[in-house]
């Protein structure tokens, strides 16, 4: 089936990764089972996967603490990426998307919320999370304009990220409650983020970061953005989690 799709590859129908022949990656997370299809790594950078298929999520020593926010900590599960092709054979990559999957833990001292399993608390957690990352970058631009080659223009330079509960979408796929949103800057490629809680203090975060190759990300002569969106959804549709 994938070779048929490859024959139809074009600028308006870029070919992404092949999930039909992708191996299943599995992790045991203290009684919870995570599995997902992971197509062959296609980026020039190294493929990275947590060496331990069995992870004790309650061992705080395995995590890297978030230095700036003090609200949580995380451990990388997998780093990979895939290209999008505009021709059936040979060279022709017009863009790519990278995936950074992490297990994230709420800091034991961060008690602003009660439980990530509560939908409103999970959204509060994510609003704090995005503000501590992209909101921080925006604030640094304003505080240090001398570091920029040109005057800071919020309409052009500021990251856009969710600031209210309504800006975070929720959906259930394969029995998994997902919280997802997009982060971007005007005219730049999107970052698709999908989160799901697996305990009162732990969540899984999948960050998909897209980019164009040799062209602008948004252009009338290609549909890279649509291909990325379809790939993100195909990946999420192949994630399975068994809770204890």
Order of helices and strands: HEEEEEEEHHEEEEHE
What's the N-to-C terminus distance?
A: 36 Å
Category by helix and strand content: alpha+beta
According to DSSP, the number of beta strands is: 12
Shape summary:
globular
Kindly provide the radius of gyration, computed on alpha-carbon positions and rounded to a whole number of angstroms: 19 Å
Question: Beta-strand percentage?
Answer: 25-35%
- Tally the helices: 4
Overall mean pLDDT: 90
Largest sheet: 8 strands, antiparallel
Task: Supply the number of structural domains.
Answer: 1
The amount of helix comes to: 10-25%
Protein described:
- This protein is α+β, with helices and mostly antiparallel strands and 244 residues long.
- It has one domain.
- It is 20% helix and 33% strand.
- The chain has four helices and twelve strands.
- It has helices at 2-7, 119-143, 154-157, 224-237, and strands at 24-29, 32-37, 48-49, 54-55, 64-65, 72-85, 93-106, 169-173, 176-183, 191-197, 202-212, 239-242.
- Strands 3, 5, 6, 7, 8, 9, 10 and 11 form an eight-stranded antiparallel β-sheet that branches. The protein has a four-stranded mixed β-sheet with strand order 4-1-2-12.
- Strand 5 (64-65) and strand 6 (72-85) form a beta hairpin.
- The longest helix is centred in the middle third of the chain and has 25 residues, at 119-143.
- It is globular, with a radius of gyration of 19 Å.
Concise account of the structure shown:
The chain has helices at 2-7, 119-143, 154-157, 224-237, and strands spanning 24-29, 32-37, 48-49, 54-55, 64-65, 72-85, 93-106, 169-173, 176-183, 191-197, 202-212, 239-242.
